[in-house]
Specification:
single chain, alpha+beta, TIM Barrel, 18-stranded mixed β-sheet, 8 helices, 20 strands, globular, binds zinc ion
Amino acid sequence: MAYHEYIGNLHMHTPYSDGEAWHSEIADAAIATQLDFVVVTDHNIWIDGVQGYYGDEKRGYVLLLTGQEIHDRTRLPQVNHCLVYNAKTEMNRYAPDPQALIKAVNRAGGMTFLAHPFDKGIDWREDIEGIPWVDWDIEGYTGLEVWNYMSSFKAVLENPLKSVRRLFSPEDAIIGPDEETLAKWDQLLAQGKRVVGIGNSDAHGTPMKIGPITHIVFPYDFLFNCVNTHILTQHPLIGEMEHDADIIYRALARGSTFMSYRIPGEAKGFRYSAQGAQGATAQMGDSIRLGHGVTLQVLMPVRTHIKMIFRGQVVADETNVENLTYVASQPGAYRVEVWREYKGIERCWILSNPIYVEPNIAPIGVTGGESIKKAGY
Ligand SMILES: [Zn+2]
Ligand SMILES: [Zn+2]
């Protein structure tokens, strides 16, 4: 089946919270970098009335939507930043209780993603603290922000001298997403949970001062060329805001999406699908019965390094290939990583969402798709 692919970014800020650029300026940056959609997520506020298509025939168009990033501002140090999409109302009143927030968003037909869950502070900068997720005893959330570019950037500011260099060429040091976050994702998937992964910029456009140097970390257009989320959909976007938002949010809820890092190259064209018994097929985010084995297939438009990951282990690993085939013989979530060299170092280029291979007889207690069903998808 042919799918339509769209690239977007789902985490950024305006002056309504702690960002520097207004919605129309963000739209300009998104058009300049050829994103198809962006979702602006200001802290603890939902901005209505700015959603829609921006641009013109000459430059192209981008769909700008608004979500929220909710946390309890009275709790110090800061923890538990939660990205909220498609709730259609402000959710700040649930900020003190993440589980209540998740439930309320699900009731409203929206989605929740735990933002930068293993974010760390900078040892030599007391003013820059980590904002991790700490309350893991929650359920019903849609997914994790597996790769947050600004969080990755903070992680490579090991000392003041290195940091000055990193300000001007962050791409030298950034290899892939945070390993603890990936391990947590794999752990949750291995427990039989459905957890959608997204990759984002967390753009603020804020000036950062290191010694005598002040530099913007980073302009929105720079960040839109770094970590993004691609959606795959059977139905194309048609240029009509509500219709297209629905398509994007459905793909996101289902997990028919993948994350890409644009610095090593444009990642369009990645495809990952499965074939099972009696003509059954599945793509990212779908479930498929194990039967006598499910054939998982990865297709890339260029030769590259492809890995199949199951329960946190690499179960297939091929370099310099355009495709990879793996026959899954055990139930569970299978995800794909694609790596590519940039500036002499292999970097994580693509992270797929999993295909869920279901046991032939479902064990008691594993239902799957909980939050998806609740959200009406
Ligand atoms: Zn945050
Ligand atoms: Zn943020």
